[in-house]
Write a structure and sequence with these properties.
about 500 residues, alpha/beta, 8-stranded mixed β-sheet, 14 strands, globular
Length: about 500
């Protein structure tokens, strides 16, 4: 592309050269696409209308999916809040980014939080001329005493904390909180707020955050630097518990749907069990939260259109992890099952990324960092130290290699943080092999994902051919990621 540039001659040639370089730099910066990264919390990948697996209503995403590139085999490699988010932003697995369990006061003595010196993709974007914004849940900084006086900081374990500007990793506009689950009265820190200057909002969190995103796009209050490409993360807490705080208008969408019609999956526990009761109590609330988040995502995309910037914006829609909600006798996430691991994933970039639903690509969270940077033309800026690999070429036109497996880990308890605890595993197109250490006992899991999608039959045996094939790959991955988990 050619540009006709007029420069007024200046007697000082150095000044003329400076003006030329400055103008050319601005033109190049304006050519880079914007980025909108929408991150929901605890949204399992099966619970989206276009998947046709559950009776959940997501009309916007069902429509938007036809315009974007959809991965149906995207996983959260550590399916719990803080570790998943750290992998997204750093491109590294937990033992390299230090977030090896949820960030709270129990894990704080073990140094579990995102290091200030870690280079996130947002840091790289800022270095290369982007104006960055963050709205919503962060959950990557340890609580410090005296704890912030919020409702989730007064129990035995404190969770919520302010993020000082030096630890915001290139996000200049900040409207965020650590973690806080009162969704109908959320709390936030503004960009310039001090630690004691948080405020509450009498509005459902996702609705309020969609409003703030619209302000960012229109630059209503100078939220971003005009003329620069921008990135904005909108991190919504629902459909994370507490599920009952969902607005009535979304719950009404399910009032005429019989509960029995939502209980057809064979891995839902019997109604006489505690987890069976939990599933039946919460499934409509959970779906209603998803429907509400779907509507707010639609509002965000509509706002991009209104501001005439959708066509020059990469949009990513995903979640940090899934939710069993009682399936497999698991109350939520942080386990080896598909409902915990699988997450929705849509990426859209008009004219640049070929739309389609891909049922084979094995997506992993650490790969988003290098893929995103390569998509925006910053391949040379990708740190050589990260674990993730770029699949930008595949995303754009389906060329290049695909990953052969996904590695998973989790269950490392916050007040223990012993690396030889929890689970480690590998997931391929057909099988999942995982090992769980609990009470000093190592238990193996092998599921045939094609013939047993609900994971009802554990095929694990030390001499099973798939165990012999896949276990050495886990050992190799543990060594690569500096993980001290012992597989014997």
């Amino acid at each position: 592309m050619c540009y006709k540039i007029h420069i007024r001659l200046n007697k000082k040639k150095g000044m003329m050269l400076f003006c030329f370089v400055l103008l050319l730099t601005n033109i190049q910066a304006q050519q880079k696409p914007n980025i909108v990264f929408i991150l929901a919390d605890q949204w399992r990948g099966q619970a989206v209308g276009y998947m046709k697996k559950e009776k959940v209503q997501t009309p916007f995403l069902d429509s938007f999916a036809s315009k974007g590139f959809v991965l149906t085999q995207m996983v959260s490699n550590y399916p719990v809040c803080s570790p998943a988010r750290a992998m997204i932003f750093t491109g590294n697995y937990p033992f390299k980014n230090k977030v090896i369990s949820n960030v709270n006061s129990a894990s704080a003595p073990h140094g579990v939080e995102l290091p200030e010196e870690m280079i996130c993709w947002s840091d790289v974007l800022k270095k290369n001329g982007y104006s960055n914004g963050y709205i919503g849940k962060w959950h990557l900084d340890s609580p410090v005493q005296p704890y912030i006086p919020t409702s989730n900081n007064i129990g035995k374990v404190a969770w919520n904390e302010w993020t000082p500007p030096a630890k915001r990793h290139g996000f200049d506009y900040w409207y965020s909180y650590g973690t806080y689950d009162v969704h109908n009265k959320p709390m936030y820190w503004d960009t310039k707020a001090t630690r004691d200057e948080f405020h509450y909002v009498n509005q459902w969190g996702p609705e309020h955050e969609a409003d703030k995103a619209a302000d960012f796009f229109s630059n209503k209050n100078n939220e971003r630097q005009a003329g620069k490409p921008f990135s904005l993360v909108i991190s919504m807490n629902p459909p994370h518990s507490e599920y009952e705080t969902v607005p009535l208008e979304y719950l009404k969408s399910y009032e005429n749907i019989s509960l029995d019609s939502l209980l057809t999956d064979p891995n839902i526990p019997n109604a006489s069990t505690a987890m069976g009761k939990e599933y039946r109590k919460q499934i409509k609330n959970y779906y209603a939260n998803i429907t509400g988040v779907d509507k707010q995502i639609g509002r965000i995309i509509h706002s991009l259109k209104e501001n005439k910037i959708l066509d020059s914006t990469i949009v990513i829609i995903t979640a940090d992890h899934g939710n069993c909600l009682g399936k497999h006798q698991e109350v939520s996430k942080n386990n080896v099952y598909e409902e915990s691991l699988l997450i929705p994933f849509i990426i859209y970039w008009k004219g640049k990324i070929i739309p389609g639903i891909d049922k084979k690509f094995l997506g992993s969270l650490p790969d988003l960092y290098p893929t995103l940077l390569e998509l925006v033309g910053l391949k040379k800026e990708i740190p050589s130290t990260i674990d993730g690999k770029s699949y930008a070429s595949y995303f754009k036109n389906r060329t290049g290699a695909m990953p052969a497996e996904q590695f998973i880990l989790g269950g490392i308890i916050s007040n223990n943080v012993d690396p030889n605890t929890g689970f480690r595993g590998i997931r391929t197109a057909k099988y999942k092999l995982a090992f769980l250490r609990k009470n000093n006992q190592l238990q193996g899991f092998l599921f045939d994902l094609k013939n047993d999608p609900y994971e009802l039959n554990n095929l694990y045996h030390a001499n099973h051919p798939q165990v012999k094939l896949l276990k050495p790959k886990i050992v190799q991955w543990l060594k690569k990621t500096k993980d001290e988990f012992i597989l014997n």
